[in-house]
Amino acid sequence: MTQADFLKAPFADPIEIPNLDPTGPGRFYNRELSWLGFNWRVLEEAENKRVPLLERVRFVSISATNLDEFYTVRVAGLRELARAGNTSPAQDGLTPAEQLVLINEDARRLMAAQQKTFTELRREMAAENIEILTRADVPADEKPYLLDIFLNRVFPVLSPLAVDPAHPFPFIPNTGFSLALQLERRRDKRMLMALLPIPQQIDRFVALPEQNGSHRFVPLEELLLLFIDKMFPGYNMVGNCTFRVLRDSDLEVEEEAEDLVREFEVALKRRRRGEVVRMKISAGAPEALKSVIMRELHVTPSEIVEIDGMIGIADVKELVLDARPDLLWPNFTPRVPERVQDHDGDMFEAIKQKDMLLHHPYETFDMVVRFLQQAARDPDVVAIKQTLYRTSQKSPIVEALCEAAEDGKSVTALVELKARFDEAANIRQSRRLERSGAHVVYGFVDWKTHAKISTVVRREGDRLVTYTHYGTGNYHPITAKIYTDLSFFTCDAALGRDATKVFNYLSGYIEPEGLENLSLSPSGMKKRLLEGFEQEAEHARAGRPAEIWAKMNSLIDPEIIDGLYKASQAGVKVSLVIRGICGLRPGIKGLSENIRVKSIVGRYLEHSRIVCFGNGHGLPSKKARVYISSADWMGRNLNRRIETLVEILNPTVKAQIVSQIMAANMADVAQSWVMRPDGHFDRATWDEGEFAFNCHRFFMEYPSLSGRGSAGAKDVPKLTHTDD
Fold first, then answer.
1. Beta strands in 6-153 (DSSP E)
2. How far apart are CA 69 and CA 85, in angstroms?
3. What is the 3-state secondary structure (H, E, C) of 679-705?
4. Is residue 696 annotated as part of the catalytic site, yes or no?
5. Which residues of 546-557 are buried (b: 16+ CB within 10 A; e: fewer)?
């Protein structure tokens, strides 16, 4: 893709794949390899010279963190299937064992690329007076300063562990990072093996005093080696290495658990002790140390990755320094919607005027928090209901719910305990809510509740009015600063009734009937989507304009993919913005020649889920049918989770979504990759000096588009400004 934007460019010429069975597994691309492809795109942003230097360091860290989680969950699961002899193929035809081979090959290349990228970034950081020193680099006159830090801030939390018949090899937890040491006692030359777990409770990088604006850091493992004699007096160090383990972290919960909270607390302890699925060890480690570590951790050679560089590269996020704003993204303050300002901050008055859509992070998530805080303090509010999937540790939303409950309001909170890696935090939040007098429910044992809904029932005169918030993202004020999501506020009675039915379902197993503007998974959402695809196909067959635009994080459900293939074959033009996993293969003659897929990776994490149907008028159009959703198009979301698909009927809100948000995503060039039929993505290119449209910058710089709904798709490609 060149400067011709994605929105207006013709669909690429399809390729022909001989002998491709349109009903066989070759029509799908492997989920795990697609995810690795996404993480390659994240790492490529660390190499992008148009991104500020320290933000590129952050991208390296994100790539490493992503890969760790991928191994502890997805790879761990495949490994168990392969070990059990399971040869059932995935939808693309690969068995678990075959997938593991391909994953490990690609992941090893990715880890090597992470090290190479960070090595280059270290050179660039050094040129900007930000240095990472080894113990040999530390000037002699600064060692007393580091010794003071070691003795007072590090030594008290260290636990040096000898390894011999009287001291068995200790347990190393998931993500545990350790030094392994070969020591020789000076008085009798006796050898000792010891482990020194590196505490995760303190920073990985120790800062030296600034000198003329320079920032210098010593990694914690280098600090420990510098003062090894303080921990092992009377010994000489004759060899050392560092290693880090990842363990199986997927949770298993008994289906018949009587106390779901207690069962999850037990499962969290099991996660910490899961089997090792990958171990990184420093290159050139002494063979004696390496063999002992492998034996004691039950690690095979295929599960070991030797690293010539920094182990635990995810920790480099600590080097993203607020003290160097010149090397960070320019500061951006999210906007407060003008309508809320017009009503002196009163959310209920603003919503009462008409439905309101907020586009985060460009418009502040504080409005969602204010909505609940105002409800907690409003004497006319009688009830609040809220879903909580992920939220922050010190959540202002939980604070507001507690305040409302303590004030005597009826508060119901659906807390999802199965939110991966947030289970412990959600248990703490649920207990806090219960102490405040809120009704806390946990949904279903078999299904996660992933829907994002909040309702406030308010007494206005002689009637009760329900104010409802539907979101595409979590109620998490911190991630809302970096995730693009939509918040839809309404006091429409039908949408309020729909939300109430969902909450009754979650708290009392009362399956909702007669939903008016809402489709719910696992019961009706997939059916509604497939009906939408078929309706567009009917328009195409009748010679009317037929188009589908959709945006999500992942697309992998086979029925949905086949539905899109059928729409394409009928002549429907399908344009997809998929940030991460995509199992659909676009641009194949006779199968998907009318489908194109792009991925946007940039300053913000694309997270909103949107689908637009041209409805016989093409896109963008006032006659389009437009939906926002909490769900990606994956089997888990459509078949095993409680998710929402909300139809937007308000014309102004509909125009904001189609003609502004979706059109800008389609038109983006600066941070886009376009998917090939083989599953790989090519970065968009443009000629030197040409303007490349950047949708993130667009939404940051043009507040009228998000705030008033005044512009249309025709405006998007016309906006020009200098892109550095």
1. 130-132
2. 24
3. CCEEECCCCCCCCCCCHHHHHHHCHHH
4. no
5. bbbbbbbbbbbb
Tokens 């004497």, residue?
Answer: 379
pLDDT digits (tens, 9 = 90+) for 645-695: 999 999 999 999 999 999 999 999 999 999 999 999 999 888 888 889 999
φ and ψ at residue 164, rounded to 5 degrees = -155, 180
In three-state secondary structure terms, 437 is coil
Sign of the CA dihedral with 366 first, then 372, 378, and 380 last: positive
Residue closest to 57 by CA, chosen among 149, 125, 111, 154: 125
Rg (CA), the chain: 27
Helices (H) then strands (E): counts for the chain:
22, 27
Q: Which of 215, 359, 360, 450 is catalytic?
A: 450
**Taking Cα atoms as reference points, which of 576, 586, 568 lies closest to residue 552?**
576
> CA distances (Å), 35 to each of 69, 87, 388, in order?
12, 22, 26
Place of tokens 């399956």: 511
- How wide is the angle at C-alpha 50 spanned by C-alphas 45 and 54, nearest 5°? 65
User: CA–CA separation, 447 vs 419, rounded Å?
Assistant: 11
What string of DSSP letters covers 153-175? Answer: IIGGG---EEEBTTBPPPP--TT
State which residues of the chain have pLDDT below 50. Answer: 1-4, 251-261, 263-272, 704-724
